[in-house]
């Protein structure tokens, strides 16, 4: 089969690799019909995630068809169309029993495209299939469903729920990429009083407005002053960091009100300064986290009911063999306007609109 293989920082190739096999009775092999690229994949290629070693197939988000299931798999069977979650869960360790699947100590957690071969391939082996695959209803299109593999549960759990968004809150989302936009969409479940989006790209600020932001601010044009003006000098109740850079994290801590909450979602590859000399007296709560995906069934129900604006996040479509081109478009989002790219085979219902440029 073909797959995107990581060979070291700034080195990847779409190449022939062996087909995956069942290695454990809890495994399933899935044919990939729709797959996407995550900002975390870009961090890996930059060398920010040293645990990813040369030779690894990248990717941790997909929709496909079960081709083979191990003897212990009970919830899916060959022929089922499924969502491949970015998080695998053994279901037995302490953290899995607490629904904290991202911290699984039984061989799961974020392993696909990280510690084992991932989804940016024609086929993928999925461990712990009973908890790591979600059967999909026919009413949910593959190119929409693939957004439930990572960005929607990440935004909802690590941003909105960790940030404890409440009715009437002023919420600032720093970074209007896929995660930031999904944060805006899911924060609206809780009727915040105002959502403000901050980004460098005008195209992403426009997307933020379209998906529900009440105000937007260019990151280099005084977003902190805007937040101060809109909150009578108090600051925001919740600030979500959705970039993963020292500068944006520090910006978030400057925009939060006393007693407010900063929810860090971004993947950081460099140290960020924590100015406790200013924060210690403000009763500020700062949360971090890796998605657990316990909310995926709920979000799938919301998508099936038409309550998630998923299609508006997908800006580019490619056939699977154009993986390297798709990476190039996604990595130059400021110039290409890319928000989320989806790749797949038209005959498998992954694509229904023209391909990207």
UniProtKB/TrEMBL annotation:
The keyword Zinc applies. Residues 8-343 form the Enoyl reductase (ER) domain. Pfam families: ADH_N, ADH_zinc_N. The keyword Transcription regulation does not apply. It comes from the Bacteria. SUPFAM superfamilies: GroES-like, NAD(P)-binding Rossmann-fold domains. Its cofactor is Zn(2+). Keywords: Metal-binding, Oxidoreductase, Zinc. Belongs to the zinc-containing alcohol dehydrogenase family. This is Zinc-dependent alcohol dehydrogenase family protein.
């Amino acid at each position: 089969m073909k797959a995107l293989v990581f060979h070291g920082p700034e080195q990847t190739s779409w190449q022939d690799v062996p087909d995956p096999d069942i290695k454990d009775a809890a495994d399933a092999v899935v044919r990939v019909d729709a797959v996407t690229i995550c900002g975390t994949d870009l961090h890996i290629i930059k060398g920010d995630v040293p645990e990813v070693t040369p030779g690894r197939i990248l990717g941790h988000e997909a929709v496909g068809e079960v081709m083979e299931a191990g003897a212990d798999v009970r919830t899916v069977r060959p022929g089922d169309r499924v969502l491949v979650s970015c998080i695998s869960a053994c279901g037995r360790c302490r953290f899995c029993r607490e629904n904290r699947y991202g911290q699984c100590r039984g061989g799961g957690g974020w392993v696909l495209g990280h510690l084992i071969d991932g989804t940016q391939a024609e086929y993928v082996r999925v461990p712990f299939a009973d908890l790591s695959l979600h059967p999909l209803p026919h009413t949910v299109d593959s190119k929409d469903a693939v957004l439930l593999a990572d960005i929607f549960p990440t935004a909802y759990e690590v941003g909105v729920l960790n940030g404890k968004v409440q009715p009437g809150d002023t919420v600032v989302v720093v970074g209007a990429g896929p995660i930031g936009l999904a944060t805006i969409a899911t924060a609206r479940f809780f009727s915040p009083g105002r959502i403000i989006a901050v980004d460098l790209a005008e195209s992403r600020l426009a997307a933020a407005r379209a998906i529900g932001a009440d105000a937007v601010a260019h990151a280099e044009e005084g977003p902190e002053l805007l937040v101060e003006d809109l909150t009578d000098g108090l600051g925001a109740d919740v600030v979500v960091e959705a970039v993963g850079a020292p500068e944006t994290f520090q910006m978030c801590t400057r925009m939060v009100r006393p007693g407010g909450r900063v929810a860090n979602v971004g993947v950081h590859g460099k140290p960020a300064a924590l100015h406790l000399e200013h924060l210690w007296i403000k009763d500020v709560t700062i949360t971090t986290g890796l998605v657990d995906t316990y909310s995926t069934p709920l979000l799938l129900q919301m998508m099936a009911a038409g309550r998630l604006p998923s299609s508006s996040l997908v800006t580019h479509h490619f056939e699977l063999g154009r993986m390297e081109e798709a990476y190039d478009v996604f990595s130059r989002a400021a110039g290409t306007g890319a928000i989320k790219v989806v790749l797949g085979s038209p005959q498998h219902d992954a694509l229904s609109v023209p391909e990207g440029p």
